[in-house]
Amino acid sequence: AIASMRGRRVWDSRGRPTVEAEMVLAGGAMGRAIAPAGASTGSGEALDLRDGGAAFGGYDVTRAVAAVNEVLAPALRGMDAADQTGLDARLIALDGTPDKSRLGANALLSVSMAAAHAAAAAAGQPLYRHLGGEAATLMPLPQIQIFGGGAHAGRRVDVQDFLVMCPAAGSFAEALDWTAEVYRAAGALMKQAGGLQGVADEGGWWPAFSANEQALEMLVRAIEQAGFAPGRQVAIALDIAASEFGRGGRYKLGLEGRTLDTGGMIDLLTGWIDAYPIASIEDPLAEDDAEGFAAFTRAVGDRVQVVGDDFLVTDAARLRAAAAAGAANTVLIKPNQRGTLSETRAAWDAARELGYAGIVSARSGETEDVTIVDLAIGWGVGQLKVGSFARSERMAKWNAALRIEEALGARSRFAGGTRLGRSRR
Ligand code: PGA
Ligand code: ZN
């Protein structure tokens, strides 16, 4: 049973305040977790409660921390931390709003995750095993950012993430080895081109390009220079994050100085898929463009993963509507888009039932918290996206997965063979 709990303000990878919850059970087991924060958030996400005002740019979280200490801690005392469903239902009821705006999704999620950690500790198990039992042996295929753009790089280029996937690697560890070489090669090419200017929010190289296609060209060259076959061994994934520059069927591309309609965006992206070894595209259209999403999925869904992030916001009901319309074939899974682990899990369950693939994802504002790695492996989701191959809030997660692959030993299976771009059943 939960003996005590406290919330505290800690700091994220952008130097902004965030919420940490720490839970102690009657037997002495402890669980601790920190909420992450997005920058290119979907309008359908649960709300991150921030103080507003002058301090720390309005990002302070004293109200969310107070919600943990003054509302949630007394209300949860005595509850069974291992009853995640019951505990999350209590959190949802205590907040009482559809978007978690009263207590804050940051307060609720840190508590929901802390309870999972405490229950795993009480059971004497690593979290992934506590969540998935003996069957939790599937190591995810990582999506790793090489160039960061969009809202994570002052909108230097329109596209937010230029990433790689290594479907031909033999293990999770080998996928990291290959990505490390590609990341290094990309940095060397940037230096040669005089464009080496540090890194963006998630650790990808700063996108000093004058066209989105230039980044794609350089990524292909980096894959080749690292010694890999583009497409077959190392493929490209993109997060267009189109809600950042598209609305009402109008897409304002800053780099090209032109505005496209939905059809124009689909033609542009389809052209990229024809010209470059792209295996996955996230948020190709804006969150309000469900018809565009469906048209794009009809056009390319049997060749590439079409991933909904801002479009689906880890929401089971939105997934069902998208499936009925034939929009997207893969869901990004971000726990803080919903605010509790149970609702996050419900979205993944709906995805599986609907024939959608899943990618567990970090946010652009992260910390040393690695809970999402345990979720990806414990739930057998098959893919994991946590940013680039630099900065320890990212590397902490890749390294945590390495340890789990090692612990699983011969029982581990790598999701590398995952057929990307599967169409829906
Ligand atoms: P965010 O970006 O965390 O800033 O929303 C990540 C993503 O769009 O996948
Ligand atoms: Zn995204």
From TrEMBL:
EC top class named in words: lyase
Binding site for Mg(2+): D239, E282, D309
Every Enolase C-terminal TIM barrel domain range: 136-422
A single BP term in Gene Ontology: glycolytic process
Keywords associated with the record: Cytoplasm, Glycolysis, Lyase, Magnesium, Metal-binding, Secreted
Pathway: Carbohydrate degradation; glycolysis; pyruvate from D-glyceraldehyde 3-phosphate: step 4/5
Comment on bound cofactor: Binds a second Mg(2+) ion via substrate during catalysis.
Entry EC number(s): 4.2.1.11
Cofactor: Mg(2+)
Keyword Cytoplasm assigned: yes
Function: Catalyzes the reversible conversion of 2-phosphoglycerate (2-PG) into phosphoenolpyruvate (PEP). It is essential for the degradation of carbohydrates via glycolysis.
Homology family: Belongs to the enolase family.
Protein name: Enolase
Organism per entry: Siccirubricoccus deserti
Lineage, opening ranks: Bacteria, Pseudomonadati, Pseudomonadota, Alphaproteobacteria, Acetobacterales
